[in-house]
């Protein structure tokens, strides 16, 4: 059986007079090494892309994290410059992509901004600047020169017993990294909480009714997939779900 193909969301970055559509290498390497999958980058071109035609050709979707935040107007909030940066071209691509992938019950793995996009796409809201809220910890990345320090495991999360995340990681407390300023506010219909931080921040959700892997994490398992057991198990489980879809597709051809 050939390697499954995963559609990967892209940021849009302005550089040297060009708009670059790109995804960080850590996600692509985690897909190849941790899930045994082939990444396919989806340019953030909004309605110019026939998403159904693309989804017909892939086995799952990975929604990456990003420095940019989902634009507040997309969940009924007022936009402030301090809540940026924003990436409207990504928003106009990923939100309809998510709805189509969910409708198809495809394997989905959403990370950090991806979790936030998932919640907004299905009708939920976000809160901005979590660190300024009473009773919440500072979930932002530490100021550091090295990526290892920025992505270091920062706090623990409690996994909901008997849930879909627990089926992968067990009913346990695990340590995770933390690099975000936004978080889930009102949970979208069709999502279930799978893990929380000690300050109540929702750290993982699953998509209701999904037959296979359909999880989102606020933390970044892609960074430590080669050395952290929980991160490795998440990508391995995603890979297994992708291969199941790939096998069924090839059998039907």
TrEMBL record:
PROSITE patterns: GATASE_TYPE_1. One of its GO terms (biological process) is polyamine catabolic process. Keywords: Glutamine amidotransferase, Transferase. It catalyses: 4-(gamma-L-glutamylamino)butanoate + H2O = 4-aminobutanoate + L-glutamate. Transmembrane segments: none annotated. SUPFAM superfamilies: Class I glutamine amidotransferase-like (SSF52317). CDD domains: GATase1_2. Its EC number is 3.5.1.94. Pathway: Amine and polyamine degradation; putrescine degradation; 4-aminobutanoate from putrescine: step 4/4. Signal peptide: none annotated. GO terms for molecular function: gamma-glutamyl-gamma-aminobutyrate hydrolase activity; transferase activity. GO terms for cellular component: cytosol. It is an enzyme of class 3 (hydrolase). Involved in the breakdown of putrescine via hydrolysis of the gamma-glutamyl linkage of gamma-glutamyl-gamma-aminobutyrate. Belongs to the peptidase C26 family. This is gamma-glutamyl-gamma-aminobutyrate hydrolase.
């Amino acid at each position: 059986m050939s390697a499954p193909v995963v559609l990967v969301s892209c940021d849009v970055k302005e550089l040297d007079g060009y708009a670059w559509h790109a995804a960080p290498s850590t996600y692509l390497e985690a897909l190849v090494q941790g899930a045994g999958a082939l990444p396919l980058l989806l340019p953030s071109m909004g309605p110019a892309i026939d998403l159904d035609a693309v989804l017909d050709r892939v086995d799952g979707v990975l929604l990456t994290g990003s420095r940019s935040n989902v634009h507040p107007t997309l969940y009924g909030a007022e936009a402030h410059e301090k809540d940026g940066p924003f990436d409207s071209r990504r928003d106009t691509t990923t939100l309809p992509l998510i709805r189509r992938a969910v409708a198809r019950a495809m394997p989905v793995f959403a990370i950090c901004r991806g979790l936030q996009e998932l919640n907004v796409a299905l009708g939920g809201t976000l809160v901005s600047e979590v660190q300024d809220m009473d009773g919440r910890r500072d979930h932002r990345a530490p100021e550091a020169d090295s990526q290892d320090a920025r992505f270091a495991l920062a706090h623990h999360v409690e996994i909901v017993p008997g849930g879909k995340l627990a089926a992968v990681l067990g009913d346990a407390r695990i340590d995770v990294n933390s690099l975000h300023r936004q978080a889930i506010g009102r949970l979208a219909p069709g999502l279930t909480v799978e893990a929380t931080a000690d300050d109540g921040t929702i750290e993982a959700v699953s998509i209701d009714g999904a037959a296979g892997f359909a999880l989102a994490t606020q933390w970044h398992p892609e960074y430590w997939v080669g050395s952290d057991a929980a991160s490795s198990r998440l990508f391995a489980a995603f890979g297994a779900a992708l291969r199941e879809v790939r096998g069924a597709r090839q059998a039907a051809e």
